[in-house]
Specification:
Blueprint lengths: L8 H18 L7 H6 L20 H15 L4 H14 L13 H11 L26 H5 L5 H12 L6 H18 L4 H19 L3 H5 L23 H13 L4 H9 L5 H16 L6 H5 L4 H15 L4
Bound molecules: magnesium ion (MG).
Length: 323
C-alpha cells in the first residue's frame, strides 16, 4: 500500500497525462456516433477531424484539470480563486494546447459569465436539472490528492461540492464527482480496480443515506454501483455528455480492460462525447497503471508535454511529505 499522504510521481503524472492523452485521442472524433466508429475505430493518436486540430491536441477537459492542478500546487482549493483561473483559461487561453479555446460546454460557459458578473463561485454554477453535463466531472480528478488523507467523507463531499459547484450547481453532478473521486482515492490507496469499485459500491450508498442526499438522486447511480458494472453490455453503455452516463461509461471501460491504452481506446470508440469519456476514464487509468504505462508516443507528442510534466512535479511536491 502507498502512503496515502504521498502520491508518487507516477500517480500524479499518470493522472494528469492520463486525462490529457484520453482527451487528445477523443478530440478528432468528438460527436461521431458509435456506428461510424465501429466501422472506423480509433487505434492511436490522430489529428484534425471534428475540431481540425493537429495530433496531440487536448481540449477544455484537460485545460480545466490543469487549472485545478495549478490551484492545488499552491494552496488549498478556494472556489473564487479557482474560478479566476478558469476565467484566465476562457478569456486568455491560459493552459490551452495551442493558445486557443476551441471547446467549452454550455453550462461551464454560463457559469463563467456569471463569475465575470461578480457572482460568487459558491453559487456561480447553474443548478437546473438539465444542467448536468459532464463539465465538472471532467476536470475534478486532481482534487483526489487534496482529499486523499482527509478521513472524513462528509468533509470530502463538501469540498467536492464547492469545487464542482463553480460550474455545475446540481447535486447530481456533485455526486458524480464524489463517486469518481472516491474511486480515485481507493486506487491511490493501492487497491486493484475491481476492489476499488467493489469498495465504493458499499461506501457510497451508505454515505448517501447518512448524508441525507435525496434518494431519487442516489437512484441515478444505483445501476452503476450494483457491483456488476463490469459485466454490463456495451449496448447499455453510452458515452454521452450526461454526467451519469459519462461516469458509468468511463468506469465500465476501466473495469472491462487491463491497460491504459485499451481503456481509453474503448472509451473513445463508444462515440458521442469521446474526448470527455476518455479523459474521465484515462485519468483513473493513468492513476492506476502509472504514467509509464501510457504509450510513450502518445505522451511525448502531446501538446505542451513538458509543461504538463513540470506541473505534475509541482503538484507532487506539494503533497510529498516524505522528504
Ligand atoms: Mg473537450
Amino acid at each position: 500500500m502507498n502512503n496515502l499522504t504521498s502520491p508518487d510521481r507516477s500517480q500524479v503524472a499518470g493522472a494528469l497525462f492520463g486525462v490529457a492523452v484520453g482527451d487528445a485521442l477523443g478530440v478528432p472524433v468528438e460527436f461521431l456516433d458509435r456506428q461510424y466508429l465501429d466501422r472506423n475505430p480509433v487505434t492511436g493518436m490522430q489529428g484534425y477531424g471534428t475540431w481540425n486540430q493537429p495530433p496531440g491536441t487536448w481540449s477544455d477537459d484537460s485545460s480545466m484539470t490543469f487549472c485545478l492542478a495549478e490551484e492545488l500546487s499552491r494552496t488549498s482549493p478556494d472556489p473564487d480563486h479557482l474560478g479566476s483561473l478558469f476565467l484566465r483559461w476562457y478569456r486568455d487561453a491560459w493552459w490551452t494546447a495551442h493558445d486557443q479555446v476551441f471547446d467549452i460546454g454550455g453550462t461551464t460557459r454560463e457559469a463563467l459569465h456569471r463569475l465575470e458578473q461578480g457572482i460568487s463561485a459558491i453559487s456561480s454554477g447553474p443548478s437546473g436539472e438539465r444542467q448536468n453535463g459532464n463539465g465538472a466531472l471532467m476536470r475534478i480528478l486532481p482534487l483526489v490528492f487534496h482529499l486523499a488523507d482527509d478521513p472524513d467523507e462528509t468533509e470530502r463531499w463538501q469540498i467536492t461540492c464547492r469545487t464542482a459547484g463553480i460550474t455545475h450547481g446540481h447535486i447530481r453532478s456533485h455526486l458524480a464527482c464524489h463517486i469518481y473521486l472516491e474511486m480515485a482515492r481507493q486506487i491511490l490507496e493501492g487497491h486493484s480496480l475491481m476492489n476499488a469499485y467493489i469498495r465504493i459500491c458499499h461506501t457510497i450508498p451508505n454515505f448517501c443515506s447518512t448524508a441525507g442526499i435525496p434518494i431519487d438522486e442516489c437512484d441515478h447511480y444505483s445501476r452503476m454501483l450494483d457491483g456488476n458494472l463490469q459485466s454490463g453490455d456495451r449496448d447499455d453503455i453510452r458515452g454521452s455528455g450526461y454526467v451519469v452516463q459519462s461516469l458509468e461509461a468511463a468506469l465500465w471501460c476501466l473495469l472491462a480492460t487491463s491497460s491504459y491504452a485499451d481503456a481509453v481506446l474503448m472509451a473513445v470508440n463508444l462515440g458521442e462525447d469521446t474526448d470527455t469519456t476518455a479523459a474521465v476514464c484515462g485519468g483513473l487509468a493513468g492513476l492506476h497503471y502509472g504514467v509509464d504505462s501510457i504509450p510513450t508516443a502518445w505522451r511525448k507528442n502531446l501538446a505542451k508535454a513538458n509543461q504538463i510534466e513540470e506541473l505534475s512535479r509541482r503538484l507532487q511536491h506539494r503533497y510529498d511529505t516524505t522528504g
